[in-house]
From TrEMBL:
Source organism, top-level taxon: Eukaryota
Gene3D superfamilies: 6.10.250.2090, Band 7 domain
GO cellular component, as recorded: plasma membrane
Domain Band: 1-160
PANTHER family: AT06885P-RELATED (PTHR10264:SF19), BAND 7 PROTEIN-RELATED (PTHR10264)
Family: Belongs to the band 7/mec-2 family.
Transmembrane segments: none
UniProt source species: Magallana gigas (Pacific oyster)
InterPro entries: Band-7_stomatin-like (IPR043202), Band_7 (IPR001107), Band_7/SPFH_dom_sf (IPR036013), Stomatin_HflK_fam (IPR001972)
Protein name: Band 7 domain-containing protein
């Protein structure tokens, strides 16, 4: 009676005269088969990863984006993966691509860009539910890249630049408003104490002379000029 060995990461599904033998899949280790009566299929139960091809998706807000993802899955029931589906690997890949299009079609562009982790978890649960009858366990789904049209990228960049310029103008306007209030308060203080204005004149002259300027502008009080004008008229 021939003997066969399967590895630790493999299981053997045995059929005897076309019927599945009792006891489920065999392995790992050594098992015996009856020639011309038994047939078996080895199933790899290690985790498998594959890339979902880029999918052209029309989002909920009518924007076309190209999205690709990576899926990790493994066979948790070798018997079901052989008896319930013709090719569990191919079926899982096709279902992953379809699920990616269906899920992203219900999201806005902003949600796709900002909620990748939530979308990945939802895709994982949907795939796990769909592949459970095939004996396949979906372990992880990750969205790799979201590619936007070039024109949309330029429009978003222009919008972001305009928003930054608007914020800069608002900040500058707020600064000017605060500065005008401070100048108003300073003018009120100088009005209450005329001697303080003369001290400010002297401080300004000191600052100008420290810079080694050849020209110095000295302000004259208006009251002094008015007194000279009144004398000339008299």
């Amino acid at each position: 009676m021939p003997k066969t060995v399967v590895q630790e990461y493999e299981r053997a599904v045995i059929f005897r005269l076309g019927r599945l033998i009792a006891g489920g899949a065999k392995g790992p280790g050594l098992f015996f088969i009856i020639p011309c009566i038994d047939s078996y299929t080895k199933v790899d139960i290690r985790t498998v990863s594959f890339d979902v091809p880029p999918q052209e998706v029309l989002t909920k807000d009518s924007v076309t984006v190209a999205v690709d993802a990576v899926v990790y899955y493994r066979v948790q029931n070798a018997t079901m993966s052989i008896t319930n589906v013709e090719d569990s690997n191919r079926s899982t890949r096709l279902l992953a691509a379809t699920t990616l299009r269906n899920v992203l079609g219900t999201k806005n562009l902003s949600e796709i860009l900002s909620e990748r982790e939530t979308i990945s978890h939802y895709m994982q649960s949907s795939l796990d539910e769909g592949t459970d009858p095939w004996g396949v366990k979906c372990e992880r789904v990750e969205i790799k890249d979201v590619r936007l049209p070039v024109q949309l990228q330029r429009a978003m960049a222009a919008e972001a630049e305009a928003a930054r310029e608007a914020r800069a103008k608002v900040i500058a306007a707020e600064g000017e408003q605060k500065a005008s209030r401070s100048l108003k308060e300073a003018a009120e203080v100088l009005t209450e104490a005329p001697a303080a204005l003369q001290l400010r004149y002297l401080q300004t002259l000191n600052t100008i002379s420290a810079e080694k300027n050849s020209t110095i502008i000295f302000p004259l009080p208006i009251d002094l000029l008015q007194s000279f004008m009144s004398r000339q008229e008299s």
